[in-house]
Amino acid sequence: YKMAGDSRFPDVDTDGSEGSEEMEIVVNVGGVRQVFYGDNLNQYPETRLAELVNCLSGGYDSIFSLCDDYDPGKREFYFDRDPDAFKCIIDVYYFGEIHMKKGICPICFKNEMEFWKVDLKFLDDCCKAHLSEKKEELEEIARRVQLILDDLGVDASESRWKRCQKCIWKFLEKPESSYPARVIAVLSFLFILISSVVMCVGTIPDLQVVDAEGNRMEHPTLDSIETACIGWFTMEYVLRLISSPNKFHFVLSFMNIVDVLAILPFYVSLTLTHLGAKLMELSNVQQAVQALRIMRIARIFKLARHSSGLQTLTYALKRSFKELGLLLMYLAVGIFVFSALGYTMEQSHPETLFKSIPQSFWWAIITMTTVGYGDIYPKTTLGKLNAAISFLCGVIAIALPIHPIINNFVRYYNKQRVLETAAKHELELMELNSAEGKAAGSRSELEDLSREGKEGPFYSSRIKVSHSDTFIHLLSEEKHYRTRLQSCK
User: What pLDDT does 298 receive?
Assistant: First the structure.
């Protein structure tokens, strides 16, 4: 680089004789040369390229604050940056907008735009969406890595109760943290299955018993198994509530609401059985208890806590509300049209089963969904033709939105696998960098001792860990977690 007073470079022209509007500059980015004119670059004076036009009058200090090297003979500025990204960024001077080429990492492209001081508002909307998606992936990777690091770390300043609380939370919420936690997760899964099976088996008449008043009730053995399962669910919920770091968020969580709905009917029915008879008639108490027992089906949704497949399906359905809405709209229009036509065409037959249009809705629903119970069917020729057209239209209406829903499921499932792999890879890199840092520190200490008194105290060989332009920003520097972003590969 040219320093002050360096005779290898001719003096920079500082008299301003050449107007900045007509100035021609040459930019070499990663070996790719581009020629620009001042009138184009000055459209956006805040950008780095526009600053190059006026930096010559400021001397070499001003020049080298903007570029990596400079050839005064050719007036050529050198930059050690990505040439592919640069080719996209310079479109802003000609077209007023920027498009990312396929294959460029969005995070790297954002960093390149920041280096060239080009505002992100010039990025096209489709590219912004891609960048936003990549940011969300980075945040998810950072969140997963940070959770793992928080579990591994032990804060000596925390009280004994806080440490115990954290251990219980890991034990119940994170089966991958230890072998006993994995055993507890399997037991919880088995209790959910047993409870669901007992609920179904208890409705078989041959396995029920008759009480003193002649009413059928569940077998005492099944009732005992049910009580044991509810006891396990109650203990599990209470321990998780006590150990949760954010109790307000815990109570309002959907899966925890499902847990409460699975437990609450048992205690409410138990209370009504023992105390309700004093407040209302016995028949009303039995009806209320029976209605509450039906609510036990909510516990089957507890399986979603232990099944990544059910969680993926739930997310795919949430992301597919638009497609599901289209499906319901198609079916609603078809049901209304074909039920009205079926009612009109069947009125001429003396033994018609289409008594009214609302009653014909049921026929249209089971026909368009290709179920066809056969309880209502057309008897005239025109009615049969209408039925044939209705179930053909039903097949088409159901098939159209199915493909986007399947795509959402596959995309989310694959994304979760990629995020898990990226999080594990980040942890491996952290361990590798930590080991390299320790080895570099020990080598530098030995070299300092061997060279002491020969080359001065400021000479030491230290290995500096280089990082790429992208890293997970959410991992705080206070803990020295700053690693390369592997998910961009």
Answer: 67
What is the Cα–Cα distance from 264 to 273, expressed in whole angstroms? 14
Instruction: Give tens-digit pLDDT for 416-458.
Output: 777 777 777 777 777 787 776 666 665 555 455 345 444 444 3
- Cβ count within 10 A of residue 153: 8
Burial 121-138 (b: 16+ CB within 10 A, else e): ebbeeebeebbeebeebb
Is-same-fold flag (24-145; 311-431)?
A: no
Q: Could you state, in order of their start, the residue ranges of all structural domains in the chain? A: 24-145, 162-306, 311-431
Q: Does domain 162-306 have CATH number 1.20.120?
A: yes
Q: Which residues pair with 78 in a beta bridge?
A: 28, 69
Which tokens go with 485?
């972003």
CA dihedral 223, 225, 227, 228 (to 10 degrees): 170
Residue 85's closest CA among 5, 135, 35, 30? 30
Please, which residues have CB within 8 angstroms of residue 100's CB and are 6 or more apart in sequence? Answer: 88, 106, 109, 123, 124, 127, 130
Q: Say if strands 32-37 and 69-71 run parallel, antiparallel, or are unpaired.
A: unpaired
- Identify the CATH number of the domain defined by range 311-431: 1.10.287.70
Of 13-17, 37-41, 192-196, 258-262, the least confident: 13-17
Q: Residue 157: which residues within 8 A CB-CB, separation 6 or more? A: none
Going by pLDDT thresholds of 50, 70 and 90, the confidence category of residue 25 is: confident
Mean pLDDT to the nearest integer, 178-189: 85
Whole-prediction pTM value?
A: 0.54
CATH superfamily of 24-145: Potassium Channel Kv1.1; Chain A (3.30.710.10)
